[in-house]
Structures are given as C-alpha cells and as structure tokens.
C-alpha cells in the first residue's frame, strides 16, 4: 500500500517540531496550524484522524502552562471527531465533551468570534446526538442562539444564515405530539423568514438560495388549514432559489430544488379555483423536472437520490396514464 501523502507530511511535521530550535509555545502553535491545514480540505477520513492526532499532541504539550492553546487544541480535536464519518454516537459524544471542556477557557481568553464558532459547532453536535436520545433539541437551539449574539447579519451574514437554517432544521426534527406538529413547523418557517429579512439575493446569493429552498420544504409540509396557499408559497420560494441555482453552475443544488418543486407541483391543481378539474398540466411539468433531476443525480453518481426520484417518477407516470386512458 502506498503511504498517504498526508501521513508522511504528518511524520515530517512532527519530526521538525520535535527539533530543539523552537520554544514549547511555538511547537504547540505549529502543531495546531498543521492540524488546521489538514482539516480544511480533507480528502479522506484518515486526513481528519491525522488532524485529531496533531491536536492531541498539541494538547499534551500544553500541560497546564498554556490554557488558551490547550482549549484551542481541544476544540480543534472536537471538530475533527465531529467531522469523521461515523454511523454511531461515540465520536460525537467525544466531540461534545471536548467543546464543553474548551468553552469556559475560550470565553475567558479568546475572541468573541472564536467562542461563537465553537458554540455553533457544539449546536451541530448536540443536534446530531438528538436521534440517539443523547441530547435535547432545545440545547442545540440554545447553542445556536448564543452564537448569534456574535454572528449578526450585519457582520457575519454567512454564519448568520447557516445558524438560522440550523435552528429551523432543529425545530423540524423536534418530536412533538401530533396536535402540536403545526407549532414546530411554524417555528421553522418563522426562522427561515427571519433570516431572509436580512440575507438578500444580490449580496449573498448562495445563502439566499439555501434558505429559500429549505423554506419551500418547510412550507410544503406545513400542517395548515390553507394547504394550497402553502404549496403556492413553497413554489414561489423554490423559484427564488432557482434564480441562483442552475444546472450549469450548481448542478446538485439545482437538481435538489427542482425535485422539491416537483413534489409541490404534484399536489397543486392546474387551476386552484377549480381543484376538482385535476392537475394534468402540472403533472407533465412534474415529470419533466423529475427526469432532469434524475439525469443530473446519475451524472454525479448520487445513486440514492436518483433512486428516490425514479420512484417518484413511476408514481407520476401512473397519475398521467390515469388521465390519458
């Protein structure tokens, strides 16, 4: 087996750092910088493990002499553990413990932005632990709100948009009794709408498209006494996202949004004023969208998504055939 380039780079870095010429503090900083560089664009899970290993070496070197660097190493380790692909909860629990150990020190010595980034990442870890019954959704939402104190729309629009997106998704995943279903869905819609007051198409197109696409999804499945109105609002949101997302520039995001729009159109009568007349014309549009999305998913080897769209297409074909027979 050919050694991974990052493996040899790690060994070289550790050998260089072990040399006598640098102070302990400099060695710790070099280890953290090296770990961050592996973490930024990992090609494999091994790259992330190498980063965690480097952070751990930095953490050990700190002992009790460099509390801020020690907290940074611990938070970096937590981010690495959180990012390693894993189906279980063990790495997430280690990440949660790492963030919780680092946060009080960072709050004392680090910049507000550094603290907010850790709170944002802790929110994600807590959200990921909810399905294992190892965290509460409300705790993840609280962590996101803490981060929002720093990541305002004026100064950090990208982080602001991502935080509100995460808050909305957290609300949507909250297990509530069925009679309170409308409450969590309403809170999710409200979260997207709050963010969209400030995240504008012209200034932040990528974040705008993400929020509009996910707002469309929340509206489409919103329990309401006005389902048609919500479907029309959802379609309008998808159309806003499609002002940014295109088959040429962002093919997978585009395919996701046209699939979502197709789902909404499937339930929309051709003439909302005459629902009893059916939706044959809309079904033809749905078929076109699904076919285009499936082609893109296949081209980009998104097999699972292509399969979901294929199943939806079969259902659409059956509906169209019932009109044509």
What's the quick description here?
By secondary structure, the protein is mostly helical. It has helices at residues 5-18, 24-40, 45-62, 67-83, 90-109, 112-129, 137-148, 157-172, 181-196, 205-220, 227-241, 251-266, 280-299, 303-324. Helix 12 (251-266) packs antiparallel against helix 13 (280-299).
Write the SSE topology.
Blueprint: H1 5-18, H2 24-40, H3 45-62, H4 67-83, H5 90-109, H6 112-129, H7 137-148, H8 157-172, H9 181-196, H10 205-220, H11 227-241, H12 251-266, H13 280-299, H14 303-324
Walk me through the structure:
The chain has 325 residues and is mainly α. Helix content is 73%, strand content 0%. The chain has 14 helices and no strands. It is elongated. The model has no long low-confidence stretch (mean pLDDT 90). This is TPR-like protein. InterPro entries: TPR-like_helical_dom_sf.
User: Which bin fits the share of residues in helices?
Assistant: over 70%
Taking the sheet with the most strands, its summary is: none
CATH topology label of the largest domain: Serine Threonine Protein Phosphatase 5, Tetratricopeptide repeat
Overall 3D geometry?
A: elongated
Cα-atom radius of gyration: 24 Å
Question: Uncertain regions: pLDDT < 50 for 5+ in a row?
Answer: none
How many individual domains?
3
Task: Figure out the total of helices.
Answer: 14
CATH superfamily of the largest domain: Tetratricopeptide repeat domain
Strand percentage, roughly? under 5%
Distance between the termini: 61 Å
Which structural class do the helices and strands define?
mainly alpha
CATH architecture group name of the largest domain: Alpha Horseshoe
Mean pLDDT: 90
How many strand elements? 0
Organism: Hassallia byssoidea VB512170
InterPro entries: TPR-like_helical_dom_sf
Protein name: TPR-like protein
């Amino acid at each position: 087996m050919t050694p991974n380039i990052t493996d040899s780079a790690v060994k070289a870095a550790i050998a260089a750092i072990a040399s006598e010429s640098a102070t302990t503090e400099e060695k710790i900083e070099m280890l953290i910088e090296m770990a961050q560089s592996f973490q930024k664009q990992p090609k494999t899970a091994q790259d992330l493990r190498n980063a965690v290993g480097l952070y751990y070496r930095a953490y050990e070197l700190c002992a009790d002499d460099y509390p801020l660097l020690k907290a940074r190493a611990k938070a970096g380790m937590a981010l690495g553990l959180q990012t390693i692909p894993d189906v279980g909860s063990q790495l997430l629990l280690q990440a949660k413990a790492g963030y919780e150990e680092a946060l009080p020190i960072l709050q004392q010595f680090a910049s507000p932005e550094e603290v907010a980034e850790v709170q944002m990442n802790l929110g994600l870890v807590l959200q990921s632990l909810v399905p294992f019954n190892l965290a509460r959704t409300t705790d993840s939402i609280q962590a996101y709100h803490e981060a929002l104190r720093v990541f305002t729309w004026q100064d950090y629009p990208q982080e602001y948009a991502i935080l509100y997106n995460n808050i909305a998704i957290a609300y949507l995943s909250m297990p509530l009794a069925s009679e309170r279903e409308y409450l969590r869905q309403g809170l999710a819609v409200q979260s997207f709408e709050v963010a969209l007051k400030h995240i504008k198409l012209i200034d932040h197109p990528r974040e705008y498209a993400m929020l509009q696409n996910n707002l469309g999804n929340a509206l489409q499945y919103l329990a309401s006494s006005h389902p048609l109105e919500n479907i029309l609002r959802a379609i309008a949101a998808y159309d806003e996202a499609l002002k940014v997302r295109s088959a040429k520039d962002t093919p997978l995001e585009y395919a996701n949004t046209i699939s979502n729009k197709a789902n909404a159109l499937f339930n929309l009568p051709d003439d909302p004023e005459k629902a009893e007349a059916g939706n044959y014309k809309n079904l033809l549009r749905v078929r076109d969208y699904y076919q285009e999305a499936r082609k893109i998913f296949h081209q980009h080897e998104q097999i699972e998504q292509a399969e979901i769209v294929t199943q939806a297409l079969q259902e659409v074909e059956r509906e169209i055939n019932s009109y044509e027979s």
